[in-house]
Amino acid sequence: NHLNNVVVNISGLWNRSGEWMRLDGFDSFANMVTAEANTKDKNSFETIAIDDYAQRQEQSIGLIQLDIEGAELSALQGAQKILEQDKPYIIFELHRYYVDWSNGLRATPVCQLLLNLGYTIFAVRDINSHREMPNQPIELVPLDSVYLDGPPHGFNMLAVPDTTRVQNKAFRIVEG
Asked: How do residues 39-48 score in pLDDT, each as one tens digit?
């Protein structure tokens, strides 16, 4: 689509730069595990912390979008400076396969990290089927109102530093 503002980096987001990792497991449920540095393993890659990436680019970050199969917490731990200074909007996944939410979403380490930095967190309503939804607002469910029962599943989450950005006709905040 002729985008000229996308840069592809062959690096894994992690809580620190310079680690060597590889993906372990099947397809969308693969997770990052430690790999040997400087090997000829074509499946291994070097990590970078978001803070280090932003510093090298000499840019602030306004949006972080993560769906990295359980490594979301580690990636956000590597973005402490960015989270505190730039206050980017964050879209991330929480999946019961990787995250224990038996004490509620609020108690998960990734939500605790963001809440302690002053973020408000919502789950994004997922209909789980294809439906045309022109001109329909995105439904956001407050963190403590998300229905968690059922088979193992995940949620796309939105963390905002300021709720005024979601108080308009593009969004609808709903309970349950």
From this structure: 667 778 889 9
